[in-house]
């Protein structure tokens, strides 16, 4: 991994300049637990604390739960910086829950791909990592390598398919892609539900969390699961023969963002934390630790890491992002329909 000297120097100066007033201050953020939270500490939190003297307090909360807390606490929010992976920043900005960010206040903003900084002034925080959603498969036991989302419907895989509940963000994106391939849209998810019914009849099964996927691959002869590139790396790091492939019909993606919460007093310090998050150093660290795709165009990765991520402006811009507002508007109804489908 190459050092991005000039960019990191600028980021370091920005944080160091705030060190004096940050001493003794506390920022409250959410993180996503498990391996992600470990990487979050290594790549962003600990270096930020060491550089500024501030303390970062972590509340473990996934995107949907964190957003629900943000809404409930609108008059007195607990978070200074809030992280989302399901597009909740778009809704939060519209509802006035997030503060605008002046791009000039972020030393690293100019290095982000355009899509990663589209509406900073409107309150949507920058995207700092991307998880591609495709097919995680067992390269030793799967009878053939899947190449397309449509392969999920191939009886060859039958009772060796693991689906993830759509209360899980990655599970939602995988389902919406399956729905699209089956002829559905965000206005009609019935084709996807019909496909899920067929898969369950053929012996597929549903899990709710990432660790359950690992258990199925390790203990129950799972061959294929629609899920994220970073988790394929988690499985392979655990010694499992798991690999990731993008479906030829397209690759949906989860855009992970860092957002400035409205109504908090220490927004300058919080903005510095966001700037650290979008730095080339932090993004390279996330890519190495978890195989997330960077959004900072100056990031350079070792060949083995680069091979596992979606890298470069053209490749990243070709990813599919389902309308987060539409998802948020329909989430409760879709989960209800999903639950009825899998309960049959």
UniProtKB/TrEMBL annotation:
<dbReference type="InterPro" id="IPR006059">
    <property type="entry name" value="SBP"/>
</dbReference>
<protein>
    <submittedName>
        <fullName>ABC transporter substrate-binding protein</fullName>
    </submittedName>
</protein>
<keyword id="KW-0732">Signal</keyword>
<dbReference type="Pfam" id="PF13416">
    <property type="entry name" value="SBP_bac_8"/>
</dbReference>
<feature type="signal peptide">
    <location>
        <begin position="1"/>
        <end position="22"/>
    </location>
</feature>
């Amino acid at each position: 991994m190459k050092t991005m000297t000039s960019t990191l120097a600028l980021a370091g100066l920005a944080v160091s300049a705030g060190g004096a007033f940050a001493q003794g201050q506390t920022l409250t953020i959410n993180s996503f637990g498990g391996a992600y939270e470990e990487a979050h500490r290594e790549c962003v939190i600990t270096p930020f604390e060491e550089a500024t003297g501030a303390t970062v307090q972590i509340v473990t909360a996934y995107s949907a739960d964190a957003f629900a807390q943000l809404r409930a606490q609108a008059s007195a929010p607990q978070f200074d910086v809030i992280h989302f992976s399901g597009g909740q920043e778009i809704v939060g900005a519209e509802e006035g829950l997030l503060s605008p960010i002046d791009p000039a206040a972020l030393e690293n903003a100019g290095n982000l791909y355009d899509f990663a900084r589209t509406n900073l002034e409107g309150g949507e925080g920058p995207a700092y990592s991307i998880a591609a959603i495709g097919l995680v498969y067992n390269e030793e036991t799967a009878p053939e390598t899947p190449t397309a989302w449509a392969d999920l419907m191939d009886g060859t895989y039958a009772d060796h398919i693991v689906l993830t509940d759509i209360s899980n963000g990655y599970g939602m994106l995988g389902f919406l892609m399956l729905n699209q391939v089956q002829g559905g849209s965000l206005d009609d998810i019935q084709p996807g539900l019909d496909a899920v019914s067929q898969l369950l009849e053929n012996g597929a099964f549903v899990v709710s969390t990432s660790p359950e996927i690992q258990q199925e691959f390790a203990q129950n002869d799972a061959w294929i699961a629609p899920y994220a590139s970073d988790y394929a790396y988690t499985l392979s790091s655990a010694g499992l023969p798991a690999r990731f492939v993008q479906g030829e019909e397209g690759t949906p993606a989860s855009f992970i963002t860092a957002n400035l919460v409205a109504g908090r007093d220490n927004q300058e310090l919080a903005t510095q934390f966001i700037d650290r998050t979008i730095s080339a150093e932090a993004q390279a660290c996330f890519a190495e630790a978890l195989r997330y795709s960077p959004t900072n165009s100056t990031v350079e990765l070792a060949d083995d890491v680069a091979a596992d991520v979606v890298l470069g402006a053209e490749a990243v811009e070709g990813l599919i992002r389902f309308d987060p507002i539409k998802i948020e508007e329909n989430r409760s109804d879709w989960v209800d329909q999903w639950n009825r489908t899998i309960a049959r």
